[in-house]
Amino acid sequence: MNKWKIFVLLILVSCSANKNFVSIDSGNHATIEVLEKNYSRSFGSGKLIGKGKSNFSSNFVFESKDDFSYIVFKDIIGRKLFLVEIDGEKTRYVDMRKNKEIDIEDFNKFLPIATKFDSNTYKRLLWGTPNVFKDLQIKTRNIFLISTKLISIDGSNFLNELTFTLNNDKQKYTILFTRRNFEI
């Protein structure tokens, strides 16, 4: 009889509410328009993590100001791997080890969602606006499952983590922002 009581107690405890989830007021989401009025640039660092068929971790640094942004991905020992440079509507990809420009399909082997990013998507991602993939979800819903984690700073919600799960290859890519600063 005591075994059943313990079993029922364990089930009830495991079904209790998870305190890690909080209610997010979407009215407090940071927007690129408001951020650009208050700050001249966004810069920081993060990590791209691949799990599944391809396991890797790549730290990155970034900066975004006006219509110019860049991201530099590094390998595990800090050597530069790829540069993504956004200037206006033009996005350029550079293999830093070979010191040559590559096309988006080659960069897409490193980050398979890259072909879905345009210059505005990169900019909103770097500034941390939560609605960055509002339109992208419709275009990619049969290919990718996109989940996000937000962080609240000074009453506004910012994008802190993105996870893309590829349905067909059982591969997961997580973009985690470890530091994001704004300069006036």
Can you describe this structure?
- With 184 residues, this protein is of the alpha+beta class.
- 22% of the residues lie in helices and 43% in strands.
- Strands 6-5-4-3-2-1-9-8-7 form a 9-stranded antiparallel β-sheet.
- Strand 5 and strand 6 form a beta hairpin.
- The longest helix has 14 residues, at 2-15.
- The N and C termini lie far apart (66 Å).
Oligomer: single chain
Major sheet? 9 strands, antiparallel
Give helix and strand order, one letter per element, not per position.
HHEEEEEEHHHEEE
The count of helical stretches stands at: 5
Mean pLDDT: 78
> Which spans have pLDDT < 50 for at least 5 consecutive residues?
2-25, 137-142
Looking across the biggest beta sheet, what order are the strands in?
6-5-4-3-2-1-9-8-7
Provide the structure class.
alpha+beta
- Calculate Rg over CA atoms: 19 Å
Range of helix content: 10-25%
Query: Between the first and last Cα atoms, what is the distance in angstroms?
Result: 66 Å
Strand content: 35-45%
Overall body shape: globular
Q: Kindly state the number of beta strands.
A: 9
